[in-house]
Specification:
By secondary structure, the chain is α+β, with helices and mostly antiparallel strands. It is elongated.
Length: 685
Amino acid sequence: MIGTIRLFTGSMRLTLIPAIAIPISLLGTLAASWALGFSINILTLLALVLAAGLIVDDAIVVLESVQRQRADGTGPSAAAVVGTRKVFFAVIATTAVLIAVFVPIAFLPGTAGRLFQEFGLVLAVAVAISSFVALSLVPAVMARLPASAPRQRRVSDWGNRLAQSYHASLKMVLNAPRRTASICVLAAASAAGLYTLLDQELLPAEDRGTIYLFAKGPDGVGLNYTERQADRMENILIPLLERGEIIALFTVVGRWDPNNVFMLAKLADWRERERSQQEIAADLKPLFADLPGVTTRIFSANSLNLRGASSGGLSVALLGTDYDEIYAAAREYTEQIRSKLDSVSRPRIGYDPSQPQLSVEIDRERASDLNIPLEDVAQTLRVMVDGARIVDLNADDETVPIILEAGSDKIRDPSDLVNLYVRTRSGALVPLSSIVRLDERGVASQLDRREQRRAIEIDVEIQPGFAMQTAVDDLFELADEVLPDSVTLITRGEAAALAETNRETLITYGFALLIVFLVLVAQFEGVTSALVIMAIVPFGLAAAICALFLTGTSLNIYSQVGLVMLIGLIAKNGILLVEFADQLRDRGFAVREAIEEAARIRLRPIVMTLVSTVLGALPLILASGPGSEARSAVGWVVFGGMGLATFFTLYLTPVAYLGIARFAKSRAASGKQLHQELAQEGLQE
């Protein structure tokens, strides 16, 4: 960014002024973050990186305006005052617009809002501090610099030629405004069509250097069986441990349930291995899938700890009123998934009626005929199966429970229960088999309920090359064909969070657009100038979508937040152009003359701020290491979106101003009309 300023200003002394403003604004932002109780984390650091490209913009605008006044022969102090006064409104307006965009990011509802609260507020504070520094420090320093004639450089000649080419092409565009607007609308519509082709997911896949493995055996097999399966799983990972790709392995047998195995494989540092975490996990999946007698899952965490399900996995649930009916539908549904869908594989039903359960059914009429109390039957079974607590013995301030239970060798088989005897009220002994019947069956280990209805969960794995939203759409389309009307399909875990986040972000888009429009109306004291600026925003968003498509970046939480940010960034550059055109109209210029002159004078600050913002996002794209995949999503939105939106800012904004501003009078004309009306009423002082 400093190099960009040096290139455009041609003076190292002038370059040092915004260079000094950057650390001052960042230090002020850190102090404000401390006062707000924020910590230094991945989101606040991401905000500071983006802020570095934004906080210099206001300083550039003020610097360029003061430098232009000095180039016209104005003294240093007068140039600082006049130059700052000319852009004061533009700086305040852009700051208000950016804050109006960043604050809604901080108040996103749900999961996304909790995550990006600090992110949005840090950006808002940084922009507010940068505007104060630009309007105070920059003109104060410029007033102290001695006057010096600018040097003629080859770069300046190139810049002048490019500016002349732009002015000539702008006149051609303004001569055919309808054709230009039509071309821009078609380009934006084409980019909007690319939106449906973007991969949609909650978060991009990240290499966190850790792989988690979970395995589950049949119900009732016990720890010995589970431990043997854990040994087999470890044997698969031993070659990776010997090659150094895995540096540590941690195994827990019987976590939450005796049939479960949980393993954590810590990978070597990113610089010390050739394969990524995703590549290693993809190679391990078929090896663990072939293990007999156990179902396995391989998953990983992310920088925001949002994934409750496996990485690359998807969880849904079938809702209904009867578990048997839901289970039958789930089995049919999973069979259809295996045969018809290419986007997902290995469906696993969470409902498994294989846990053995022994039920004792008492013939109450028979027991009544034999005069056997039911409580005696229950007491006998309780003592023989689990033991019964008879009384507590208190001795020396200690309580010793007295438990009545059968010997360990008395009940070895369920059939031993029916060989017991119970006593009738008359004292006779009657075999228990004469009044009870044993029913041994398989049942589910747990019964789930979702949304106050009976539910059975199904986990599937997303195939490589398919986005999560594509897999969700395929599952719902198949459910409409296969599932009965009494069974409903809903998403769970990460897929449900994705749907929630998409819905919340769309609401935030609407609020951001509305708030920015209202702020612009209040700043410009009219609707037309605000409409001109807002008319460019959709085209800038279309440019960002095109950038995401060209770079293969998915639409996730990070890129969606970047799109919300882009609303303010695009409006900021439009303000620089429209605000100066309004000033020229107040001085008597016609609409076309005003916008042409504004485009000529404000070309350099607009290009400088565009370049600084775009280059400020470049470190996010070039970053490597843990979490770089997430940061690059925001970087490509800002870098590609602002870069491609340059055409719309420089050409479509003048066209929109030419078409809309003609329907409103200038502020000076409106003020003159007000004074005339007051004078006619005798109220003019």
